[in-house]
Amino acid sequence: MKTERLAYGLRVLFVGFNPSLRSHELGFNYAGRSNRFYTILYQSGLTTRLFTPQESSLLLQEYGYGFTNIVARPTRRADELSREEYREGAVLLRAKIEAYRPMIACLVGKGVAQAFFGKAIRAFGFLESQADGCTHYFVAPATSGLVRMKLAEQVAVYRALAEEVAHCPWPMREIRGEGR
């Protein structure tokens, strides 16, 4: 099943490595049993309540949060992906970002950012020099249960994103005068 959720005028486009087998099977984003994505969104202030993977489409409607991955092929683990898949995925992702122009592209994992930009990313947070004039890039920790980072540390990084998102007007259609 397709887990990609895209729309014009997104506040945040969350970009993962690729769908887990479970996410692909169920059609919901970040659906792995040990994935902390929704807990982190809630605890960081990016959402006002704890959502479930089954409600991921509501994040698009209620918050302007979209979802995609740098590689579309589902796997058990991201390390099963090839360098070629990442290179091809980076080209496709760049085209999606140019087409949909989200305010912020949140690259969920330094590996995603590295594959996208073609260079090592050392720190979490906004990449000032990477803004293309429309979309700003934020590097956040991966939320998989395989990540060894403590939940509180992950939440702290995402809280910086939440603080910026709080200042992003939404929905963008109204700002452009297109109405709902």
UniProtKB/TrEMBL annotation:
A biological process term (GO) from this entry: base-excision repair, AP site formation
Family matches, as InterPro entries: MUG/TDG (IPR015637), Uracil-DNA_glycosylase-like (IPR005122), Uracil-DNA_glycosylase-like_sf (IPR036895)
Domain Uracil-DNA glycosylase-like: 9-159
Superkingdom of origin organism: Bacteria
SUPFAM superfamilies documented for this protein: Uracil-DNA glycosylase-like
GO molecular function terms listed in the Swiss-Prot or TrEMBL record: pyrimidine-specific mismatch base pair DNA N-glycosylase activity; uracil DNA N-glycosylase activity
Keywords recorded for this protein, A-Z: DNA damage, DNA repair, Hydrolase
This protein's name: Uracil-DNA glycosylase-like domain-containing protein
CDD domains: UDG-F2_TDG_MUG
Organism: Ferroacidibacillus organovorans
